[in-house]
Amino acid sequence: MPEQGAERLQEPLEGPEGAGPEVGLAVQARTAAPRGLTNPGELVEAAQEFARAAKSPATRRAYASDLRDFDAWCAGRKVSPLPAEPATVGLYVTHLARTRSAASTIQRRLAAISQVHQLAGHVPPPTADWEVRQVVQGIRRSLGTAPAQKEAVLTATLRRLVASCDRKTCVGARDRALLLLGFGAALRRSELVALDVEDVTMTDEGLRIRIRRSKTDPEAHGDEVGVVRGQHPDIDPLRALQEWRAKAGITGDLPAPLFRPITRHDTVRSGRLSSQTVALIVKRAAARAGLTEAECRRLAGHSLRAGCATQAAAEGAPERAIMRQGRWRSTATVRRYIRTGDLWQENASAWLGL
User: Fold this and answer.
1) Residue 242 clears pLDDT 80, i.e. is over it
2) β-strand 223-228 against 206-211: which pairing, if any?
3) Around Cβ 50, how many Cβ atoms within 10 Å?
4) N or C: which end of the chain has fewer CB within 10 A?
5) Backbone angles phi, psi at 121, to 5 degrees
6) pLDDT at site 342
7) What is the separation of C-alpha 37 from the centre of its chain, rounded to a whole number of angstroms?
8) Which of 27-36, 263-272, 280-289, 343-352 is the least confident region?
9) Average pLDDT estimate for 120-144
10) Within 13 A of 330's CA, how many CA atoms are on the CB side?
11) What residues pair up with 211 in beta bridges, in sequence order?
12) Which residues pair with 227 in a beta bridge?
């Protein structure tokens, strides 16, 4: 149908996160084994087992990509990727460092190589070799280990993003609700798109949100967060959600996706957004709001979650309240946001008479 084709231009990668075939996670076997590779099918089998054991769809995709890269690098040098010699792994990570891979990327690829070796019965893995660890330590010291974090969306910027959404259209109503709910509840993008209609309850106090599964809850014990009624109608998450549901014709409490794809003809479809679409919605709103190209590049789906913590810290919210809202278990993680949020509170330079 024409509308479905048009939809793919606007909402790429529709469907539940991690819905792709699991076989795609395996490293592809080569038709001819390079010298030193005794059983190319072994790597495929081990990678498939590793993919099934992984808890997160995002981790599965990342590790699959890492294993494919390592396999291709080994193929070009006619050395065995499984089992790999420690010298092979050391040369591989050196190659990654010289091609300007981030320290976090190198560490993740080492983790993938380690796991696939252990699952195949090669213990200890080559990544545990003393010489490999020394190479990695030197790389970390040279490249640094600070992650390249996306910019947090604070309330002032959120107002601009939300104001850029056309409330008269279904897509505008959806994007407003998604932006405000993601910010207010400090939701990960995967959690946002996983919400069903029945997971969000409107109460006198605000929104009660049930999170069935998350990155830190892979066994789906579930959790709940609340978002209070907004004081300002133009950025009130509850009102925005009501508007979206009315526009989309979503009534009752249904076991159906809350945020749905929309065609270029502004017709709401019945599927579920992909987590990648959340980042696109944020970036598109930023572009419409007049943010520069550089500013738009620094924003992503995580910017909403980071913005909640950063803005709350700037307003003096207790650390425990911020951790509870974002369901952070590590104080070190949440304190990165708090340090950014309270940078100008009781700043020592204010006493310098500058």
Assistant:
1) yes
2) antiparallel
3) 23
4) C
5) 90, 10
6) 63
7) 35
8) 27-36
9) 84
10) 5
11) 223
12) 207
Tell me the domains of the chain and their CATH numbers. 20-143 (1.10.150.130), 155-341 (1.10.443.10)
Using DSSP, state whether 129 is helix, strand or coil.
coil
C-alpha–C-alpha distance, residues 213 and 190, integer Å: 9
Whole-number percent of the chain with pLDDT over 70: 76
Tokens of 183: 């910010």
Contact between 126 and 132 under an 8 Å Cβ cutoff? The reply is yes
Quick check: helix, strand or coil at residue 192?
helix
Report how far residue 177's alpha carbon sits from residue 346's, in angstroms, rounded to the nearest whole number: 35
Which tokens in the block code for residue 322? 């911020």
At residue 143, the pLDDT reads: 66
- Name, in order, each residue with C-beta under 8 angstroms of 2's C-beta and a sequence gap of 6 or more: none
* Tally of CA atoms within 13 A in the half-sphere of 30 that contains its CB: 19
* pLDDT grade for 12, boundaries at 50, 70 and 90: very low
Q: In this structure, what token pair is assigned to residue 91?
A: 């040369």
The packing angle between helices 170-184 and 155-163, to 10°, is 170
Tokens of 350: 């204010």
Please provide residue 228's backbone torsions phi and psi, each rounded to the nearest 5 degrees: -70, 155
Pairing verdict, β 223-228 and 200-202 = unpaired
The three-state secondary structure class of 214 is strand
What would the two tokens of residue 121 be? 């019965």
Task: Provide the CA 320 distance to its chain's centre, in angstroms.
Answer: 23
Cβ atoms of 261 and 170 within 8 Å: the answer is no
- Residue whose structure tokens are 């990509």: 65
CA dist., res. 228 & res. 207, Å (int):
6
Residue 344: pLDDT above 80?
A: no
Q: Where are the beta strands (DSSP E) in 85-222?
A: 200-202, 206-211
| Amino acid residing at 136 | V
State the pLDDT at residue 187: 93
Higher pLDDT, 335 or 1: 335
